[in-house]
TrEMBL record:
Its EC number is 2.7.3.9. The gene is ptsP. It comes from Oceanimonas smirnovii. It is an enzyme of class 2 (transferase). This is phosphoenolpyruvate--protein phosphotransferase. The lineage of its organism: Bacteria, Pseudomonadati, Pseudomonadota, Gammaproteobacteria, Aeromonadales. Belongs to the PEP-utilizing enzyme family. It comes from the Bacteria. Signal peptide: none annotated. It is found in: Cytoplasm. InterPro entries: GAF, GAF-like_dom_sf, PEP-util_enz_mobile_dom, PEP-utilizing_PTS_enzyme, PEP_util_C, Phosphohistidine_dom_sf, PTS_EI-like, PTS_EIN.
């Protein structure tokens, strides 16, 4: 029955209306199982009953009217027990409840399966027959399988169908793309020219078509330069790098050559752009890698921008009368750049991930963003909404009480930001005079934010892979030297720890794709660079050359799982240092041999710490990956993300083991995962004995303020109290009260 199962799921998924989907499901299921009746009972979270949502066999007029209260009837029992129930004669069961409006007198046998999505029972799927009999094992399996597959479909269809009601208000769930909260009216943007709607046309005047293409290429290039300049003035290098991707595409001789080839084959300039862009979009859109898939959106945006200029030459700038929330099916970096900063409160996008250029720009600009709200937005125009960039929630027309609470929260955040700013130039030292080092995690924004960030004690993690990702080839040694030198000179006299190339998993190079079934357990980090010493040596040499006369460089190896990887990396560093020292012997300054450390993020390293200590100079704990690998949880997977817990007992024991072993062998150790920037997390870590934390720029001042309000001796007592409890919630409760007692209860909000 696998074919029938697949067809039912496909038909329901294709339906654009929840009621239509349910009716189609009931009909197809009854036919597939050769049953006399199939019915679907659904329950909304706020309801105390199951409502007959669709049927093929019961009275049609009962749909939307017949209700079974929770705790009553066999349907209620299926939902209550969360398991399948098979009865030869339902009337003999003590929980049988007769629904006169449904006219189910003639049906005797009953088979019901719960429809469960993310541990919530959405409804019950029921088939019935007139004859008295038990359904067979194969029929049970079919219904359970169907219910399980349809749970996600039904949940999605229900949420999507909500927006069809003009008066609907409620919450839509997406991905947290950029932190923050904003309240405003929705402005739904629609592209003036959509790539797929452009009609293909032939042309006879080929020279004229080439001239038209040249003109729009020049216009769009000037637009992109202007956009990049806007962000350059705001010192956001991360934003500038986003526009560099567009410029790379626009100047790519292969991409432009394909368009010219299409013109030579007799197509108009617009048709040539459409044909090439659609081919490229299809190529990137089918890729499994998230980063590469996002490049399809870049090409679509660039193609539509070229077509807009070809079709509407008088296209002017966007004009908005008041600040708003930008809502669109797909939001591009160029669209964001066209909107005046004082008119943009937040962005909400149906498509795109937290790695999309829209999310990157939103974070750089400090505005909330929610991505992946896969719904139709036509009816959201001008409706009031709350965009919660911490939780990924979008609240449409929220009640006055909810609005009041969010406005209070926004005001509280503004007050806290002012409070945190007061310690900008102060030392990060606890009230009992324990020095804490607060370092910066940097990447795209390093050469801008680092220079401004006088609050940090150095750079604890410079992600060197970002410049690699923003090119169409491996950067040369000289290009890398310039990039690294900017960072090192921005922190003269302070440490800068550069992590060697860490690609693979969720970070792919567009020109060096790695296709694997399980990339997070595959060829990534140090595994890749040791297999390609020609890449590794160039990077090491570039780092060493960049450090001449500065003496503030340290190097860190990612994704280390074995001691042999460290030994091989050390030999390559020795070789690079000798060669660069010889080549630069006549230059001013000498090259100090850098400290070498490793990222502790692979659990196998926990059992080799004693042997590891003599091989390296320091350790840095990557709590994000270490937690994922210890708990076998992908935190970007919505189905299991709630299991990801950085305060899980196993994670805490691993962290305590690391710091205890580091002390024993006199090895400096730091934390460079998100736990370092978490208010409760940093208190727990300080209690354990950690004194070095590396975090994003946005977290440094609030963590510095927390540090200055804390005492290590008090935190150590709280840690012992929390460890005496059996549940992880004790840490949040106990350390949360510590923050509240110091007037920092607002930091307990998720994401702050």
């Amino acid at each position: 029955m696998l074919k029938e199962l697949r067809e039912i799921v496909q038909r329901v998924t294709a339906s654009s209306d929840l009621n239509e989907a349910m009716a189609e499901l009931a009909q197809q299921t009854r036919q597939a199982m050769l049953a006399d009746c199939c019915s679907i009972y659904l329950r909304r979270e706020q309801d105390a009953f199951y409502l007959l949502a669709a049927t093929d066999g019961l009275a049609p007029q009962a749909v939307g009217r017949a209700r079974i209260p929770l705790g009553e009837g066999i349907v209620g029992l299926v939902g209550e027990k969360e398991e399948l129930i098979n009865l030869a004669d339902a009337r003999l069961h003590p929980r049988f409840k007769y629904l006169p409006e449904a006219r189910e007198d003639k049906f005797r046998s009953f088979l019901g399966a719960p429809i469960i999505h993310q541990r919530k029972t959405l409804g019950v799927l029921v088939v019935q027959q007139k004859q008295v009999r038990l359904f067979e094992e194969g029929e049970e399996s079919f219904l359970v399988t169907l219910a399980a597959q349809l749970a996600t479909v039904i949940a999605h269809a229900e949420a999507k169908g909500n927006l069809k009601s003009r008066n609907w208000r409620g919450m839509l769930k997406g991905l947290a793309g950029s932190p923050g909260v904003a309240i405003g009216k929705a402005w739904v943007w629609r592209p003036r020219v959509e790539l797929h709607k452009v009609q293909l046309r032939r042309a006879d005047d080929l020279p004229m078509q080439h001239q038209r293409l040249d003109k729009v290429l020049q216009q769009v290039e000037e637009e992109l330069d202007s956009m990049a300049l806007r962000f350059q003035e705001s010192s956001s290098a991360e934003s500038i790098a986003v526009f560099e991707v567009y410029q790379y595409i626009l100047k790519d001789p292969v991409f432009i050559g394909l368009i010219r080839d299409e013109i030579e084959q007799g197509w108009t300039a617009g048709s040539a752009v459409k044909r090439v862009c659609e081919q490229q979009i299809a190529q990137f859109g089918d890729m499994a890698d998230l980063y590469l898939r996002e490049r399809a959106a870049d090409i679509r945006d660039l193609g539509q921008r070229l077509l807009t200029r070809l079709i509407h030459e008088d296209e002017g700038p966007l004009s908005l009368s008041e600040p708003m929330v930008l809502v669109a099916d797909e939001i591009s970096a160029t669209l964001i750049a066209e909107i005046p900063r004082n008119k943009l409160k937040a962005i909400v996008s149906a498509k795109g991930s937290i790695n999309s250029h829209a999310a990157i720009l939103a974070r750089a600009m400090g505005i909330p963003a929610v991505m992946g709200i896969d719904h139709s937005f036509e009816l959201l125009e001008e409706r009031l909404m709350v965009v919660d960039g911490y939780t990924g929630e979008l609240l449409v027309e929220p009640p006055v009480s909810v609005l009041k609470e969010y406005r209070r929260m926004i005001a509280e955040e503004a007050q806290m930001d002012e409070l945190f700013a007061t310690v900008r130039s102060e030392a990060s030292i606890t009230r009992d005079e324990v020095k804490i080092s607060l370092l910066l995690n940097a990447g795209l924004s390093a050469d801008a934010d680092i220079a401004m960030n006088d609050t940090a004690d150095g750079v604890g993690l410079f992600r060197t892979e970002i410049p690699f990702m923003m090119r169409d080839r491996f950067p040369s040694e000289l290009e890398q030297v310039h990039s690294y030198r900017r960072v090192l000179t921005s922190y003269v006299g302070k440490p800068v720890c550069m992590r060697t190339l860490d690609v693979g998993g969720d970070k792919q190079l567009p020109y060096f794709p790695i296709v694997e079934e399980n990339p997070f357990l595959g060829w990534r980090g140090i595994r890749l660079t040791l297999d390609h010493p020609e890449i590794f040596l160039v990077q090491l040499k570039a780092m060493l050359r960049a450090s001449i006369g500065l003496d503030n460089l340290s190097i860190m190896l990612p994704m280390v799982a074995s001691l042999e990887e460290v030994r091989v990396a050390r030999r390559l560093l020795d070789r690079a240092w000798r060669e660069v020292s010889i080549e630069t012997a006549d230059e001013q300054g000498i090259i100090r041999y850098p400290s070498l450390g490793v990222m502790i993020e692979v659990p196998s390293l926990l059992y080799q710490l004693t042997e590891l200590a003599p091989l390296v100079d320091f350790w840095s704990v990557g709590t994000n990956d270490l937690t994922q690998y210890l708990l076998a949880v992908d935190r970007n997977n919505g189905r299991v993300a709630d299991i990801y817990d950085s305060l899980h007992p196993a994670v805490l024991r691993a962290l305590q083991q690391i710091i205890d072993t580091a002390r024993k062998h006199a090895r400096p150790v730091s934390i460079c995962g998100e736990l370092a920037g978490d208010p409760i997390g940093v208190l727990v870590l300080m209690a354990m004995g950690y004194r070095r934390f590396s975090m994003n720029n946005s977290n440094i001042m609030r963590i510095k303020y927390i540090v200055r309000q804390s005492r290590i001796d008090e935190l150590q007592k709280l840690l012992q109290e929390a460890l005496s409890h059996r549940h992880t919630g004790a840490f949040k409760g106990i350390f949360g009260r510590y923050l509240e007692e110091r007037g920092l209860g607002g930091l307990l909000r998720s994401g702050l």
